[in-house]
Amino acid sequence: MNRTLTIVGMFAILAAGVGCSSGGSGGGPVQSGLSAGFVADQPSPAADTVNASTGSANNDMITVQINVTDTAGVYSAGFDLIYDPNQVTYSGWSPGALLEQGGFAGDYLVSEIQPGQLVVSAGRVGNVPGANASGTVPVIRITFRVDQVGSSNISFQANNLLDDQQQPHPSIAWFGGSLTGI
Questions:
Q1: How far is Cα 177 from Cα 153, in angstroms, rounded to an integer?
Q2: Average pLDDT over residues 140-148
Q3: What are residue 151's DSSP bridge partners?
Q4: Do 87 and 74 contact (CB within 8 A), yes or no?
Q5: What's 101's DSSP letter?
Q6: Longest pairwise C-alpha distance within the chain
Q7: What is the value of pTM for the model shown?
Q8: Quick one: how far is CA 144 from the chain centroid?
Q9: 176, 83 in Cβ contact below 8 A?
Q10: What confidence category does residue 14 fall into, taking pLDDT thresholds of 50, 70 and 90?
Q11: Residues pairing with 109 in the sheet
Q12: Nearest CA among 109, 66, 112 for reference residue 89
């Protein structure tokens, strides 16, 4: 009897853990019947900017690209991404193309430290040169699920873009946007 209860209890714990957020993926593909959209604060970014833009969208799921525009020698980026957890839910992430240039590996860490706040760190690995963003190139892609009709601003805090000497890039402007559920 105790063994049966233990096995059933372990199964319940494992089943409950399936929907938890960890690593590169988060909540499951539950559809809400909503359509997700994104409006960038800076739809035509200038040189030396980091901006959020629309990636792919499918029903209530949307991927927001975090891009660097016309900036040389990018070695790493770190920032907090702030959003309204009553409107949207963090679902997962995938690497962008910037830090992977030249066949070099990127190292990524995305952690939801509390609902509505992601801490993101992305960088090249080892003694390699910084990557050059010619045009607008994604650093990382963050996927959200819209949970209700309305909008959620996406903004950056504690942001830093470093060159291959681990120095902050001067005069980098950061622009977010707004996730929408309709």
A1: 6
A2: 97
A3: 180
A4: no
A5: G
A6: 67
A7: 0.82
A8: 9
A9: no
A10: very low
A11: 121
A12: 112
Other Cβ atoms within 10 Å of 111 Cβ, number: 13
DSSP letters, 9-74, are HHHHHHHHHTTS-BTTB-S-----S--EEEEES-SS--SSEEEEEEEEEETTEEEEEEEEEEEEEE
- What is the pLDDT, as a whole number, of residue 18? 30
Q: Domain extents for the chain?
A: 2-181
Phi/psi for 129 (5° steps) reads: -70, 160
> What is the DSSP secondary-structure string of 89-107?
EEEEEEE-SSTTGGG--EE
Task: Give the Cα-Cα-Cα angle 172, 75, 99 (nearest 5 degrees).
Answer: 105
151: Cβ–Cβ under 8 A, 6 or more apart, which residues?
Answer: 87, 178, 179, 180, 181
Q: Amino acid identity of 165?
A: Q
* Per CATH, domain 2-181 is 2.60.40.680: yes
Asked if residue 40 lies in contact with residue 138, where contact means CB atoms within 8 angstroms, the answer is no
Q: How far is CA 135 from the centre of its chain?
A: 20
What was the pLDDT predicted at 74?
Answer: 98
Backbone angles phi, psi at 105, to 5 degrees: -80, 150
- Which tokens hold the place of 28? 């499951």
72 φ, ψ to 5°?
Answer: -95, 150
- Which pLDDT band, with edges at 50, 70 and 90, does 105 fall under? confident
Tokens at 146, concatenated: 């819209």
Question: Which residues make beta-bridge pairs with 36?
Answer: 181
